[in-house]
Amino acid sequence: MTTELGNRKNYFLEVEMGKNQILIPVIEVLGDKPGNTLVLVAGLHGDEYEATQTLFKLNLELDPKNISGRIIMITVGNPLAQQEQSRITPKLYDGKNLAREFPGDSEGSITQRIANEIWKLITDNCSKNDLVIDLHSGGKDYSYVHTAGVRDMLLNSEQTLKSIEAARAMLIPQLCLMEPVSGTLSATAINHGIPSIGCEVEGKGSVNWKDVEIYLAGIKNVMKLTGHDRNGSPLKTEGDFYRTSTILSKNSGFATFNVDRFIPVNRGDLICEISDSFGENIENVLSPCSGEIWAIRTNPSVGVNEILALIKIPDRGIG
């Protein structure tokens, strides 16, 4: 951690793995005046690349002499998954999803220890006046609608109200009231009194540079909200935050989808068919509610309990 005002430092969080170490890259920029802390986290899933590229570009554009406070950028949260271009840590180690392992465990499996180191960095630097942004995309297996969201929990708390304003400042049209999934970084932060949001861009396993620019513009606008950028006032996205319904597979097999992003569906509509290795239908996946498709699986090979789709529920969560 750097303590010299107007300074920039690159370093690694070190996680012991037998005789070796996992090195998690961190870029830290400390402005020339005191202020709040903004933590930007990329690469918790190893097949998502837009957020990492966003932080690379942001680092090149930041001038410590023109900002207040501290900006901490974790550019690749799970190097083991990134090396294998995988959503999860390779099964050789523990096969866990880092984005579901917070706050982690210093004595646990390798993914839990990675989560512990990232969480320790956050708690050492963040409190109720700071902000954590967890940046994601659809990766290799999914195509997402662009969303900025807060967890559907503690909605009247100071940390969630601040998170709502931060989500609006990302300037992403779709605002999401995300399910309060245990082990996610944003839910863990909210439970500990730290404002936090989660964001998604499309994905499909490559870098869409338009999505990088969307993230970059949003983060720069958030910096005006948090006081890191001393010039100008932040813009914000108006509109409602919507809840979503997650559709999971009950069987493993091959999925053929009947819908795509932004397509409206009614309760009982066919979302996809899952076939076995002989091409025989073993499951018709139906929509549990009416709404609009906000995410769809693009990899036809599915396992049990994997996400097939997310549906925006028409009833708004918060205005």
Automatic annotation (TrEMBL):
Cofactor(s) listed in the protein's UniProt record: Zn(2+)
Family annotation (Pfam families): AstE_AspA_cat
Transmembrane segments: none
GO molecular function terms listed in the Swiss-Prot or TrEMBL record: hydrolase activity, acting on carbon-nitrogen (but not peptide) bonds, in linear amides; hydrolase activity, acting on ester bonds; metal ion binding
Keywords, sorted A to Z: Hydrolase, Metal-binding, Zinc
InterPro entries per UniProt: AstE_AspA_cat, N-alpha-Ac-DABA-like, N-alpha-Ac-DABA_deacetylase
Record domain Succinylglutamate desuccinylase/Aspartoacylase catalytic: where: 34-225
Protein name: Unannotated protein
Taxonomic source organism: freshwater metagenome
